[in-house]
Amino acid sequence: xxxxxxxxxxxxxxxxxxxxxxxxxxxxxxxxxxxxxxxxxxxxxxxxxxxxxxxxxxxxxxxxxxxxxxxxxxxxxxxxxxxxxxxxxxxxxxxxxxxxxxxxxxxxxxxxxxxxxxxxxxxxxxxxxxxxxxxxxxxxxxxxxxxxxxxxxxxxxxxxxxxxxxxxxxxxxxxx
Amino acid sequence: xxxxxxxxxxxxxxxxxxxxxxxxxxxxxxxxxxxxxxxxxxxxxxxxxxxxxxxxxxxxxxxxxxxxxxxxxxxxxxxxxxxxxxxxxxxxxxxxxxxxxxxxxxxxxxxxxxxxxxxxxxxxxxxxxxxxxxxxxxxxxxxxxxxxxxxxxxxxxxxxxxxxxxxxxxxxxxxx
DNA sequence: GCAGCCATGTTATAGTATTGCAGAGACTGA
DNA sequence: TCAGTCTCTGCAATACTATAACATGGCTGC
Lengths: 176, 176
Hints:
With 176 residues, chain A is of the alpha+beta class. Chain A folds into 2 domains: 91 residues, Orthogonal Bundle (Arc Repressor Mutant, subunit A), CATH 1.10.10.10; 67 residues, Dna Ligase, domain 1 (2-Layer Sandwich), CATH 3.30.1490. Chain A contains 6 helices and 6 strands, in the order E-H-H-H-H-E-E-E-E-H-E-H. In chain A, the strands form 2 sheets. In chain A, strands 1-5-4-6 form a 4-stranded mixed sheet. In chain A, 34% of the residues are buried. Strand 6 of chain A pairs antiparallel with strand 6 of chain B. Chain A binds a DNA duplex (30 and 30 nucleotides) through helix 4.
């Protein structure tokens, strides 16, 4: 009955090469199934997003893209992002004006995000309880839900540990 | 045990003059209590936001402000908004890049919004259940919550009624 | 080939937000 | 009252985010 984690926090020791490849393979497959084209640009933008494995800004993506494709301009990256959003391959984080890869583009996903303010890592949840509670509250008020934007800011487990360790070094209870 | 509605949807028949005055009085009182200054500009921006009673864009506020204060520039309105956000007198709707008045600035408010895509009306909730469910899910994953951005898009009760009425006129079951 | 469609190139512009510095105004304590 | 200090505002410039509009090119099916 645990929480459904679509995309976990990036762990320092996870096989990142593999994780990027997986995401691209999933994307290839899904686009083929849906009869849409994962063109070179679109694929590259998706790869750039997954490679950093954290929320990416459109203009940062543009800079990267430009270094390898002189003709890249804002519409280039925004069009690619629009496509990827449409296909559910990425999500937009409203509170950051940034984009993250989706770990499970196939299933319907409302996009519930935990965002670390310290290291920028993002985890995506798709939790039925959260969805239901919100939907029920809305229904109580006669409101018809179309989409939900849920973005939780805070500190991820890794940064909490790191911070606590640092704190105990910097200001020991009886130190001086 | 109902849902705690901080700011309900604006009803066509509510006493809007009174509602704006209330908001300004609350703001005056709170700023006095907190030892901060609700200057003319800040007060005016807050009033402009409440007067429309829907999410207001910074540059729309700027246009209004400029019509009565030649010197108004982007920093003028953004500084006022920063102050009002700080004091909890307004909230920022991330998904709209817009600002709404807060119906209850005193109590801690996480900001849970129902946003009508049809008429732009916004209701603010402060629902313990929603907060708890999200906090618990985060805690399960070792995530320390700092702030929550919750924005639900959909159709408000009034627009649902209006739409249904219009639909039944436009496309009656056996009509031509 | 070529007609139609989709993706991309290109230029321009719209919309959102911040920086940095200078000057004006309000509080504080002598 | 006055100087010192702090906050607020004026002002100009710029950074950042996103879209519009039209031209070009390339694939697909015939």
